[in-house]
Amino acid sequence: MQQVVSPEHLLFEARREQMFITGSEAVREAIKRANVDMAISYPITPQSESMHLVGDIYKEGYLREYFRGENEFAVMSAIAGAAMGGVRVFTATGGPGTLRAFEMFSTWAGARLPIVCAFMTRGVNSPLSIQPDTIEMAFMLDTGMIILHAENSQDLHDMLLKAYCVAEKTDVHIPVGVFADGFFVTHTREKVEVPPADLKLPPYNPYSAPVPAMDMENVPFRQMRDPFVMKSNYISYAAHASWQQEILAAAERSRKYLAKYLGGLVDVEYADAEVLVVASGTAVSVSREAIKLCAREGLRAGLVKVKSLRPFPAEEIKLVTRGAKAVIVPEFNRVGWLCREIKAVVEDNTKVVGGPRVFGGMTMPAGLIISEIRRCFA
Amino acid sequence: MTAFQYQVLAGPEGYLPPAAAMMGVELPDKGEALIEGQVVSDEEALHKIAEKLLGAENPFFFPGPLLLWAWRDGVEEKARAIKDLAETAGAKIIPMPDYRPKYPMINPDVEINPNHPNLTIWHNNIDACVFVGVHCHYANMALKIIRGGTDCYTIALCAEAGHEDAMISLRDAGLEKIKRLTTIVGDKKRQLAGREAICSR
Fold first, then answer.
1. Where are the domains of chain A?
2. With an 8 Å Cβ cutoff, is B65 touching chain A?
3. Measured between CB atoms, does A315 come within 8 Å of chain B?
């Protein structure tokens, strides 16, 4: 029997117990405490284990409903339907699964659905790879969802719980994707501190939603059967434009809640350093190690951990990089999507170093980042 | 974010006005409200709403489904309080019964729709309006369209977090706050009537 407590108590006040678990198990522990009504699963490596474990806690009575969909598009569609009906939902996917379901993520945001989805990232391009790669995040950035990137299993656990607290605010009420680097987080066992399992978040209140819990087939909210997008006139275009603006505004409003729950959109270590490394996900851990090793050589570099990619911490990064002579952006993908984001906000973007980058499942030795730091100090 | 202070003013603002939230306007905390993009106290906003309603030539209330459909306890009582407020302010009422797009078949004499609210405002020459009981997403969507294409002064009595896109926005506008607004409107109306009586002597 679980007791409903305030999000503040569950997240910040309750005495935590240390567990030695994988990222997938951290998902289980978060969802156990998230008071989720319904979870729908479809397997894909490296996500499969997490939703399997959510199935286990369904059997133990922590969720009201759980089933397996026919494929990722079906799962994301069914999750949308459940969320439209006014219940709290959870699902997870990754890599090709993310792309297979891709249309639904913009649909979730457009319909103001406070869905929380974990994305365990992996390679998506041919030749087939199941290995770690964050390329899918490049595609997800402009879906309208809030995008968080976990550095480790602790982040993944905490961000999932916090995601519900942000997503369900009336003035936000858009989906949150919590991304974790496949294998590096999902399959790695580490110490994670979790609140007591007999506590859970308050239930979702659909009466405070900015859109009605929707029966799409009947009045008064038969929006989908009379979509203005079908009409070719200025009135309809203006309605659609205003609707899209409101989705952007919703993400903008999430900043203050993310600041409250995540302690800011970025974490900064040694902000006054001449050389800064800006990273997200597990690239942060490698960067931290590289910075520590460089310090032994007398090279003092700083670290900016980007926790939220949407909304993007543009002002924070502009400010923190203002005094740096070089900004290094290490990434686990070939396109350098984070580097593009950083270059768009840094005042003098000629000082942004796009790399090192590894992909296709490669690990990133700290030495790669150390070489860049040395080069910037030379 | 922008370097200048964006003001949420009566339009017509143009072809596609921005969402005020994207221009740096932030929703107020509890006990506060917004007037034209600036955070003020609730009390200041209540008085400003009263002035705007009483100063308007053709004010209207647009009650939405959260007020028209008795799907929660307390809705009927709140609906009566809004009717009382509108009558005290001398405002007329046009409902927003649902959110289905109805262009071009809408009858602007009897209803307003969030997808094309400007049609009802133009048709009835409405110069001040009050959104109440409209789900926040649809209210914001409509408020931007109104700001873009009409000169109507918009007021939102929101039961939740408020609306940056209204010219005046209350948050947590429950029964007590609505009754307080009715009292202020009534007092100001009597003051105005008293002044007019003195002037006409």
1. 3-208, 266-377
2. yes
3. yes
* pLDDT for residue B103: 79
Would you state the pLDDT for residue B21?
A: 98
Distance between CA atoms of A186 and A178, rounded to whole angstroms? 13
Cβ of B22 within 8 Å of Cβ of A209? The answer is: no
* Distance between CA atoms of residues A147 and A149, nearest Å: 7
B170 is a domain residue: yes
B152 within a domain of the structure (yes/no): yes
Nearest to A209 by CA among A63, A90, A106, A111: A111
Cα separation, A52 vs A303, whole angstroms: 36
How far apart, in whole angstroms, are the C-alpha atoms of residue A249 and residue A144?
Answer: 10
Q: What is the ipTM of this complex?
A: 0.95
The pair of three-digit structure tokens given for residue B70, joined into one six-digit string = 């008795």
CATH of the domain at B139: 3.40.50
Distance (Å, rounded) from C-alpha A168 to C-alpha A89?
A: 11
Question: Which positions in chain B touch A211 (Cβ < 8 Å)?
Answer: 135, 137-138
Is residue B66 within 8 Å of B200, Cβ to Cβ?
Answer: no
A239 touches B at CB < 8 Å: yes
Measured between CB atoms, does B166 come within 8 Å of chain A? no
Cα gap A153→A191, rounded to integer Å: 8
- Domain enclosing residue B184, as ranges: 30-193
Q: pLDDT, tens digit, for every residue of A35-85?
A: 999 999 999 999 999 999 999 999 999 999 999 999 999 999 999 999 999
- Cβ <8 Å between A208 and B100: no
Query: Which helix (DSSP H) or strand (DSSP E) does residue A141 occupy?
Result: none
In total, how many domains does chain B have? 1
Q: Do B22 and A252 touch (CB under 8 A)?
A: yes
Q: Are strands A17-21 and A190-194 parallel, antiparallel or unpaired?
A: antiparallel
The partner residues of B34 in beta bridges, in order of sequence, read: B39, B169
Distance from CA of A53 to the nearest CA of B (A): 35
Domains A3-208 and A266-377 share a fold: yes
The answer, for B70 touching chain A at a CB cutoff of 8 Å, is no
pTM of the model: 0.96
Contacts of B13 in chain A (CB under 8 A): none
Q: How far is A350 from chain B (nearest CA, A)?
A: 23
Does residue B3 form part of some domain? no
Distance from CA of B90 to the nearest CA of A (A): 29
CB contact under 8 A, B135 and A226: no
Q: Which CATH architecture has domain A266-377?
A: 3-Layer(aba) Sandwich (3.40)
The domain defined by A3-208 carries CATH number 3.40.50.970: yes
Within-domain flag for B110: yes
At residue A225, does pLDDT exceed 60? Answer: no
